[in-house]
């Protein structure tokens, strides 16, 4: 794309005016540009760094931002840096401060400074887990009721090793602790309801959060469920659901995470797989003027006992099922208080249930290739991995305000809870759609310092210009996960916050965080990863199935080093070893762990994601198996023999689009209208699977490509559709 732009030293005033900029302003911009070129040259990273800091602002047309970026890097080649770390600021990051105080202890004479030595530190985190993780736990003020005997014990019977043997801890208690970085009066949650854009932000201090979590924990005990019982949450992510989440974990139960967008059949599947004994839900979800039923979906799912919260604290007249409990009646079970929002409550502290390190705290779900979601338990160690990623890669620290539009049904919901609270930061929650200007104003008013996104949200902001006139200068970095991103959309995003970096973050529910990311002490490129996550090692498998040398560029299926702190070691409904380790190569005496994504490693050391290697795709940040989609599509029309669902990346990069290959019974005489069929597919998928799913293209085929064992070769279809995407999609 850069080839379509002029080099910076060829840009004229008339070129700038052609973008809708006045003659006077164009002359001023051109003069500043000339000064920067004179100082830094016309095509260096320092040129772009100065342009982004001194010349560009969110009010200038984005086309001018593109002219500057692509003009600067016209002949640079792949992975031009969109952001460079400042040496002084790098020393102020979490990682920078740790390295400045202990870098020589960790790395010896190799240590120079946080920027130069970060790659060595990442390798150190893998090769010296005892020292590294002890240091991180100390930095995050993690408190064990019984300290671990050691950090890691490796043995052949457990490929992932045994982490923190002998330790007891309660991660929710750690979220509520006072420490040297946080006191009781610090604000820990800020929120606003959609439509209340002109009202002050609502806030909750640590004292208030503790009080409310304790109250719910006491009420939970009155339900007389066995300790370790699974309790589901199917709610929007708001202050209520965060309190409930922490209370379940504090009291020694296990959260079952269910997304509030799921249809009854999907809710039912997750309740059955987890053997949930109760569920917290809400009567309705408000989105603008729409009222979306939620409790009725839970009822249709034949859920166990439900505790039903009224939307935005209003009373409701909805008739509950026999055995279900209203929120207020539930709270009244906690003796001594029935006031959830009383700041002056003086409840007795709830004594946290300290758990052994392998105890479950959360059951989440990720789609596999069998058509059933994998039920993935998080242990008490997984929250520490999530928080450590936030500490190391997003630089979340005391006083920060973290916002990430998500839901407790997806791993980024619990990740947000732990990455903010365990790092003495605040979380900012918007009770409504994140797509409009109301959310943009909320980010401004809350003075968010770390904003997490998925690319499809950014695309909508850019298309609708939702962020116009709002000041996002408080943002120190963005985080991005869930989907592949595109260069120009994320160039636009950086420009909304005066060119703060985007930290790409990829991992999985079964990892509890990321295996690959970025860092504020490394140059960051758009739509690229700059480093393996701390404590993780990455391998690109060649055509022979074995890892390519670590310094060689290449593309292939990604494998992971097996010893990753916080990663899963069991599944509730599948053989963990078979899913993640069976058939994987042995490297340096260790069997590698399967992940399933195809990655490219460039000659400059950056990484690019290229989608799934198996039959799972990623739609709008939601992993879903092809089998789930095909099962629904096959039943839509009697003239369909079979279908194959694949995710196809658009030519310019970005989230996958859903394409369906269809084999008709009689293709020559088929009267099925493709547009009508697409509407039927979308209606069925949105009703039975997820309302966010949308078919972008239908491709009739005489037959599906198959292996010798009759397995559909979806990877072949994906490749064919990707090559023909410009003409088909």
Brief descriptors of the model:
single chain; 729 residues; seven-stranded mixed beta sheet; membrane; AMP-binding_CS; phenylpropanoid metabolism; Probable acyl-activating enzyme 17, peroxisomal isoform X1
In short:
With 729 residues, the protein is α/β, with parallel strands linked by helices. Helices cover 33% and strands 22% of the residues.
Describe the model.
By secondary structure, the protein is of the alpha/beta class. Helices cover 33% and strands 22% of the residues. It is built from 24 helices and 36 strands. The strands form eleven sheets. The chain has a seven-stranded mixed beta sheet with strand order 6-5-18-17-19-20-21, sandwiched between helices. β30 and β31 (607-612) form a beta hairpin. α2 runs antiparallel to α3 (45-55), α6 (94-107) crosses α7 (114-127) and α15 (382-392) crosses α16. It is globular and about 75 Å long. It starts with 12 loop residues before the first helix and ends with a helix.
